[in-house]
Specification:
184 residues; Nucleoside Triphosphate Pyrophosphohydrolase; 3-stranded antiparallel beta sheet; alpha+beta; 3 helices; 4-stranded mixed beta sheet; 10 strands
Length: 184
């Protein structure tokens, strides 16, 4: 067996919900012993750092049940299995913020919690925004807010934006756009 590798031997489905599946797998470790791994399977998601011509970031303010709190996040959404991430990002931007982007570029991906969750979030940058009306999903309630990029960076460096995908998108864009010598 290869170094730093685990081989799945067996598994069982613990929960199969609308958004996630939870599995308990038996794996063989590189030293030949066995262990259990609990894995949350999720189709993945997309987040969009949308910038206005005035260098304002579009945020959505919404209630997040697991934390019993209203959060500030960049627009985001869940991928359907097999869905193209860019299409999902464009759809979510229109639904949540009521806008389309002339420029849509990929900023990378992130694993939110790799120890137990298989989710991958794709990060996009949207510029050249054209505004229309929100097209919220049934049961979706949120407010859109514009915050200057410099202020958003400060917020990402403090407790003002605890959402990881929002922090990473803002700081990644800022680094790529403002730090010389950063590989793009």
């Amino acid at each position: 067996m290869a170094h730093l590798n685990e081989t799945r031997l067996d598994g069982e489905l613990i929960y199969d919900g609308k958004i996630i599946r939870v599995e308990k797998d038996t794996v063989r470790l590189e030293d030949g012993t066995q262990a259990f791994r609990e894995v949350v399977r999720h189709p993945g998601g997309v987040c969009v750092l949308a910038l206005t011509e005035d260098d304002e970031v579009l945020f959505v303010r919404q209630f997040r049940y697991p934390h019993a709190a209203v959060t500030m996040e960049i627009p985001a959404g869940k991928l359907e299995y097999g869905e193209d991430p860019e299409s999902c990002g464009r759809r979510e931007l229109l639904e949540e913020c009521g806008c389309r982007a002339k420029e849509f570029s990929y900023l990378g991906r992130l694993f939110p919690t790799p120890a137990y969750n298989a989710e991958v979030i794709h990060i996009y940058l949207a510029k050249g925004l054209e505004f229309d009306a929100q097209q919220l999903d049934e049961g979706e309630f949120l407010d859109v807010e514009r915050i200057p990029l410099a202020q958003a960076v400060r917020m990402a460096l403090t407790d003002a934006l605890p959402d990881a995908k929002t922090q990473i998108a803002i700081l990644r864009y800022f680094a790529l756009d403002h730090v010389k010598g950063v590989v793009r």
